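lol ok so funny story. i was supposed to be doing the assay writeup but got distracted and ended up predicting the structure for this chain instead. priorities right. anyway since i did it might as well share w the group, maybe its usefull for someone
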Amino acid sequence: MDSKFPHENTFTRLKISNIEGIGVFAIRPIPRGTDVFRDDIFGIRWLDKEIIEAVSDPNIVKLYEQFSIRRGDKYGCPINFNSMTVGWYLNEPRFDDAPNIVVDASYHFYASRNIDVGEELTVRYADFSSATP
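and the output, tada:
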């Protein structure tokens, strides 16, 4: 039997955001440099832009637009939208605020500073996704 509890290595939860919609909030102190979602094992599925453009349902297109990483002619999205993990809900900080999360080339999300309990985690989308494919 696995001795790990489901809450081990869990630093966040979803809550209503004052920035936009749903956000990701710290439920325990997060030290600077922590890989916040290190146990997220689902990965990213990359689809060609043409596949998304061929979708006729605007609600489905909006799902891709709101929850995908864009790189050139590719959309990076959850393996399945029904299995979206907490990290997909990160908001950008308000205009004059600095993000408290940074992203590396492998899409690992790290605390850029110590984050307090109750604080919303934020990231600059432009650091890992282009505005348009």
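The longest strand covers residues 12-16. The mean pLDDT is 92.
back to the writeup now i swear
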